[in-house]
């Protein structure tokens, strides 16, 4: 029998924030596809799932070159990845791709999914807790309420785009705040959204860091997995 | 020993989408606070959590009058609710408030949390899977990717505000699409975002409904728990 391909969200860090559905899937996995990239997301996801994995699970590392307009320009490396995954499924193995947070939310899994969605295989995608939700609960910080609008913005987007999205919303989640933490802090201050901001790095993971007064922390070096929650004054 | 107050996200519908942390908390609950409102969210959350609840769990119904500027104008009804909750905790009972989806994301729990956060009690808030995440996985629909901006917008907000937020983003989640489904569909069509939209009502619950061609379904009566995912063309 052909195996099933799983895309599994493991949440932001705490292994107790996996869902029952994610755990039941992880327990069935024979082969994990792990991205071989400089960003360590994949290995973080693996460490979160570890308590639930089969002892003899096989790990296959694949290179996922990120190119703009990926869907139209699928490269040879991606085609090679697809071939390898299909062969594993054909051999009756259950194959999974783990995602930190949620698999359909700013994840490499989206590209893996697109690569496979038109093949004649069974794909099960299992949602996960996004980091911003875990941070809201951890900090007692309402993410958004009533009829308010929430913008979710990667701080790695062009600065004008980030600022425009921030101004259009009542509440804001800024993700991947690391390279340009100082610029983002200045932008929030300019829009009267710095004082009430909270920043959490690596929520639920080793070396978790909480910053409540971001303006006092300018110049600090932050981890890639850093998220700011804020709102209009 | 004084009890603990829990705010627990139970996810959008499927009891397998509860986290391990949520289940462990639900198993400890002696008293559930349930909102007595015309919207049936509370009782839906209760039905999702049911498999994990103590058989003899006590349910206390409270009225939560929603008023603008709640924090400044806490009414007598809310003060009465607070008194009742504090007495239960004082009697050593673990008390919980269940939330459909995530407790810090468009939830009545936010107001309950504010009512209690400055009291001398232990509060544990446990995140849940938001409906939009479950819908992305269910439909194989990427919610947002790369450096794109996501707007999350309640369709119940003023129409100009909704349209402005939609125009400011690459990807959009529209929540509570029911009363004004036709107007929302026209607005999305006007902004070239109707064709690629998907709508899911009651994801993972009885009477789940999936609509892929929203323009063909105008005039239909939708459940309160209806969400649209869409993106720029």
From TrEMBL, chains A, B:
Pathway: Cofactor biosynthesis; adenosylcobalamin biosynthesis. Pfam families: TP_methylase. The keyword Methyltransferase applies. One of its GO terms (biological process) is methylation. InterPro entries: 4pyrrol_Mease, 4pyrrol_Methylase_sf, 4pyrrole_Mease_sub1, 4pyrrole_Mease_sub2, CobI/CbiL, CobI/CbiL/CobIJ_dom. Its EC number is 2.1.1.130. GO terms for molecular function: precorrin-2 C20-methyltransferase activity. Residues 5-212 form the Tetrapyrrole methylase domain. Keywords: Cobalamin biosynthesis, Methyltransferase, S-adenosyl-L-methionine, Transferase. Belongs to the precorrin methyltransferase family. This is Precorrin-2 C(20)-methyltransferase.
